[in-house]
Amino acid sequence: MAEKVTIIVFSGNLDKALAAFSLAIGAVAMEMKVTIFFTFWGLSVIRKDKKVSRTRGIMRKMLNLLNRGGARRLPLSRLNMGGLGSSMMKKLMEDSKMPSLEEMISMAQKMGVEFVACTTTMGMMGISREDLIPEVGRLAGVATYLGEASEGKINLFI
Amino acid sequence: MKADATLDCLGLYCPMPIAKTREKIKDLRIGEVLEIISDDEGIKEDMPAWCKNTGNEFLRIEEREGECRVYVKRLK
């Protein structure tokens, strides 16, 4: 049976998301089965560029205004410099013929990586299914993660 | 070394060479040899590890002028 890998993407940073997707793609290349769980700020990675659903409540509206999400909008965890760092990193990646995060997301999904979004943080932040990119296959909670993680030897929190 | 197929991974970084190797090796018959050309230093450690995990045979690496030619035999 194929070895199992689970990755929790908690952070909404470009660099951390790149690390997560490199590992996921590499793991599939090693014939492993990969599930990525997106929670908290990590939901930004799998959000569409534009919010589709109506946001209820002033605090959620503010949160979604300040934290708009979408893979192309993620800041760097260090040296972001108001987005300049993130743009420079993308330019360096392009020059080095590295795939962009958006390309890696689509590649991972086509290779069979499963994307699971955490319903608790979605509810708290006012994010609906239609706000997430179509690559997301399932919405679930902690039990689903633990169930899958208990089958795997490699379980990462990024 | 003689190979049955060649995969050009020049300019590509991890994890692309192993991801492409996984795709490409499916085109070969069992027992055939795939040559992977890469200039990513990591390939020297990554390809043996990939072979070990996927049950294919790592044959050898030929290195010249910063370019690695890696030979892998498809076993399954």
Automatic annotation (TrEMBL), chain B:
Superkingdom as given in the UniProt entry: Bacteria
Signal sequence, start to end: none
Pfam families: TusA (PF01206)
Record organism: Aerophobetes bacterium
Protein name per the record: Sulfurtransferase TusA family protein
GO MF term (any one): transferase activity
Family annotation (InterPro entries): TusA-like (IPR001455), TusA-like_sf (IPR036868)
Domain UPF0033: 6-74
Keywords noted in UniProt: Transferase
Family: Belongs to the sulfur carrier protein TusA family.
